[in-house]
């Protein structure tokens, strides 16, 4: 692995890397930084927790020269991710003059419009709110030189692709575009072909495998014993910081009510019905350690970089196999060890099979000792499911 000092980053950025405490580049950084510094477009697939943010942020900040208008635009699918990237951009721009503005929904326009009037160098935005500001005449994108489309598959899931296209259309065609997506379904490939010019392709690790530092397993359980089992798991697990993912907001609220009174739990809850101010409080508190447990819906929590998470519990098997990898990717980040448990009920076997097929790995089924199971029929070892071929068409007899 080359050292950061060998990557041709500007001196203020190198100082910032030192301030961040990074000693050597991660794989994606070592690959992406030299290419980005040549001014080339990049299409990158990378697992969460691989240092992707710095991989696009460091070369971009390094190349920027002061101008009178926004020159770097970063699109993120969620407010939380946008805020997280804002923190990193501020950190990497610490030793050079750089004005950053964050635009996302759920809050008023006043402060954001004020920020825009100060002619920021960098805009980090969710697509809808950025378009609102454009429509209000608060901002033009014709000076953008660096366009970063991050977590594009998530933007697709959330229905943002039409907005993203409109935004890309408003940027000058002479620009550098860095494009990151964990998966590349057809719609994303089409967008990439349209938005990028002769991109260099970067892929770090299998797109599908969970981080190697995560120990993960299923806990089969009857549907109506889920809460009981999760309470017991929480009780018996020696966690420093625990994220629990639920499928619905209602499940998140109900689990929060059950777990918040546990002695070892300093719990908080995060989902999209919670006011932005309280969401920020929940996240900041979890990051700082004021809370040691956060119960979140996947939508609210995907892609968040929260370091030092020791445990993840999935209240249900994710319906979408990719989400499994994303969720358990919260732990075991930046080479730390982590553990992830997923509750599995009979109605979720199909999803569990899909996850095992997706990660190409049999996931161990565990039973909690001395737990009063009503029944568990799912403990027997099954082979990794094979991809089901569509049945061959029947031959007609002539
Ligand atoms: P990301 O994949 O961008 O969400 O980054 C995951 C975590 O790794 C973040 O907490 C980063 O601060 C951290 N990180 C990124 N690059 C490095 C590096 N070169 N050395 C150590 N930690 C890093």
Characteristic key phrases:
single chain; 398 residues; alpha/beta; Rossmann fold; 2 domains; 7-stranded parallel beta sheet; 6-stranded parallel beta sheet; 15 helices; 13 strands; 37% helix; 16% strand; binds adenosine monophosphate
Q: Outline of this structure?
A:
With 398 residues, this protein is an alpha/beta fold.
Blueprint of the fold:
Blueprint: H1 11-20, H2 27-37, E1 42-46, H3 52-63, E2 72-75, H4 79-92, E3 100-103, H5 110-117, E4 122-125, H6 127-135, E5 146-149, H7 152-157, H8 161-170, E6 176-180, H9 186-195, E7 200-204, E8 214-220, H10 226-236, E9 242-246, H11 249-259, E10 267-270, H12 276-288, E11 293-297, H13 298-301, E12 311-314, H14 321-328, E13 338-344, H15 349-359
The structure holds adenosine monophosphate.
Q: What is the global morphology?
A: globular
The top-level CATH class of the largest domain is Alpha Beta
Can you list the ligands bound to this structure? adenosine monophosphate
Write the H/E string, N to C.
HHEHEHEHEHEHHEHEEHEHEHEHEHEH
Strand count: 13
User: What structural class do you assign from the helix and strand content?
Assistant: alpha/beta
What is the CATH H-level superfamily of the largest domain?
Answer: P-loop containing nucleotide triphosphate hydrolases
Unreliable residue runs: 387-394
How large, in whole angstroms, is the Cα Rg?
Answer: 22 Å
Q: Which percent bin holds the helix content?
A: 25-40%
